[in-house]
Design the sequence.
């Protein structure tokens, strides 16, 4: 059977933190309504701190993979959502005219510096902002 759920494709530079968090939260909050995928301009690997802070929030992304953008998925997507400025500026052209392309910018927690506690605080701040945005998307479709 063909999947008829709208496809949401989250894009970031390395598909290691923000797009993984968005992927995890949307699957958790709206997985019955949406097909959810994420990818990056490059594949940097899944960030262990992203896995840790998502686990704290009750979402397991440890089985996710860090993937490079798939042109077929990109052009099949109903929503292409970039989560960082670099991905927004360098995203491949979406040729499907029915695809909604949105940019929801979040700070890159992988660039946080300081003590481990300070770095994890930044990861949690970004995680919570992404969760809030996913809740609004599931509720309002925007």
Sequence:
């Amino acid at each position: 059977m063909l999947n008829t759920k709208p496809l949401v494709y989250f894009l970031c530079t390395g598909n290691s933190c923000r797009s993984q968090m968005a992927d995890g939260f949307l699957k958790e909050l709206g997985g019955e309504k949406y097909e959810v995928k994420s990818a990056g301009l490059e594949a940097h690997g899944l960030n262990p701190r992203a896995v840790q802070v998502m686990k704290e929030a009750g979402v397991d992304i440890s089985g996710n993979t860090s993937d490079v953008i798939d042109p077929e998925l990109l052009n099949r997507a109903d929503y292409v959502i970039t989560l960082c400025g670099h991905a927004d500026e360098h995203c491949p052209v979406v040729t499907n005219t029915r695809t909604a392309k949105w940019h929801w910018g979040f700070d890159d927690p992988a660039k946080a510096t300081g003590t481990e506690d300070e770095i994890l605080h930044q990861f949690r701040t970004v995680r919570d902002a992404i969760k809030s945005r996913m809740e609004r998307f599931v509720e309002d479709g925007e």
